[in-house]
Design brief:
Blueprint (H helix, E strand, L loop, with lengths): L1 H19 L14 H13 L3 E14 L2 E15 L2 E11 L4 E12 L2 E8 L2 E8 L2 H7 L12 E12 L2 E11 H11 L12 H4 L4 E9 L5 E7 L1 H10 L3 E12 L17 E2 L3
Parallel strand pairs: 6-12
Antiparallel strand pairs: 1-2, 1-11, 2-3, 3-4, 4-5, 5-6, 7-8, 8-9, 9-10, 10-11
Amino acid sequence: MKKIKLLVAVLVLLMVFTAFTGCEDSGGGGEGLSAREIIAKSAEAMNEVDNYKAIMDMDMEMTAGGQTIGMKMNADMDAFLDPLKIKMSMEMYESATGATMDVDTYIIFEDGNIVTYMLMYGMWVKQTQPFSEELLSQLSQTQYSQMFLDTRKDAEIVAEESVNGIACWKINVTIDAAAMLAIVESMQGGQDLAPGVITDDMLGEIGDMDAALWISKDNYYQIKVNMDVTDAMAPLMEDMGVDLVRMAMSMTTFGFGAATDFDLPEGAENATEMDL
């Protein structure tokens, strides 16, 4: 059960980091546009997107109880934003045992809460987080992204590259992860992201986070994001009794407006509420 709780906490944090990476600030210049201007245009463009597909990869290595654990995750995602519902089909590989595990995750807005349903080890579990419909609506608005500018440390256009045949600006950003998570908690009415696992003191120890963001030069869609959260997460994981060696993730977004619709599977409604 402890492993399941740790996995849920990590997934919650990665989802938050991914959701808000595109809201950072200033720097460089490309075809007359600064990094800030490109990201602002990207926020406007992405605000018009109702749904999309994505592929996510995560690579994590940590030591706990004298045992080194390496974990890799690959996930296919279909996301709908109004109303919010996300499906992730994940395959996880643990290097210490060679074991693989399939995890189906559904994130759905229900009755003023964001509910995360997970099917793992053959059983359904869920976590419920308060999140008002008003705040959920605000989150999707372009002007709301200005609030997240307060979490930036730096941003710079470093290259022009092609991702899946799409010409993009590559922008490196440094994010104040603790400030970003504090903002998310404020939108949840002060509720913790992972009650009982991540405390306020631990949250304050989260460091800066480096990310690379690829934005389409054609339509300003956010195409790809790479994040190395090792330094940011190490202090928090240490407080959980884990020595974090490496934690990095990548998400490539495509199929804008072409996500595959889905319903919550039978049996999920009987999921056990997970008290983190």
